[in-house]
Specification:
globular; alpha/beta
């Protein structure tokens, strides 16, 4: 089973909002190292896809495989696809290089979802994210496949809901063929106007299974995110003492 499954962590050195994001210090440790260590603890095979020797140097003492990918690839998904093209893995998780929180049980649930669906992702109920355009929201069909993703506050909360609002966690699981087809498909209108690549999948007709979790996730895109994540990690370290 492990041989057909793969976790790929895309990490591009240059980022638009946070300079050299993979190497930014998070409680004295590079952000990318938090992600790699967390993924390795799940017991899955892990590959780091990066364009930078400096990113590799931050994790070179860890038992992670490294694949160098071109710096001009347009997205993390394209980096993951570049790795998968050289592999025989049938199921792959694109674990964002700016997401320091990793839970083995959620990875297992994503891989399990791929037995029925071509793509799967995560979401968590989070009222605080509802009006934040940097937090992507998702609404679901009855079968918990994605109906739509948006930076806008969706659905309109005319009454309270036990399910909504749902914050999308940008960690994706793909069947191999779906990932390769996706990265070769042209961007659609909705992806361009919302700047959300998962909308390319919906526009092309791919169902996306949304796995709900109660675990805490928060990616690092800004200095504010960095401070928030540091507080959360510090609180967890104190709790585990």
């Amino acid at each position: 089973m492990r041989g057909k499954r793969l976790v790929v962590i895309p990490a591009r050195l240059n980022s638009t909002r946070l300079r050299e994001k993979p190497l930014v210090s998070l409680l004295g440790k590079p952000l990318i190292r938090w992600v790699v260590e967390g993924c390795l603890r799940t017991g899955e095979r892990v590959v780091l896809a990066t364009d930078s020797e400096r990113v590799y140097q931050a994790v070179k003492d860890l038992p992670v495989e490294v694949c160098y990918t071109p710096a001009d690839l347009p997205s993390g998904s394209d980096r993951v696809a570049a790795v998968v093209e050289k592999e025989e893995a049938e199921l792959v998780v694109n674990y964002q290089g700016d997401e320091p929180f990793v839970y083995a049980e959620d990875l297992q649930r994503l891989f399990l979802a791929l037995e029925e669906w071509p793509v799967a992702t995560l979401a968590v109920k989070d009222p605080q994210a509802y009006k934040d355009p940097n937090s992507v929201k998702v609404v679901l069909r009855k079968d918990h496949t994605a109906l739509y993703f948006s930076r806008a506050p969706i659905p309109y909360m005319k009454e309270s809901s036990e399910l909504y609002p749902l914050k999308h966690v940008g960690i994706y699981a793909f069947r191999r063929d779906t990932l390769l087809e996706f990265t070769r498909t042209e961007k659609g209108l909705l992806e361009r106007v919302e700047s959300l690549e998962q909308l390319r999948l919906l526009e092309a007709g791919y169902p996306i299974k949304v796995v709900l979790t109660q675990n805490y996730y928060h990616g690092v895109d800004t200095e504010e995110d960095l401070r928030l994540v540091e507080r959360e990690l510090s609180a967890r370290a104190f709790t585990n003492v």
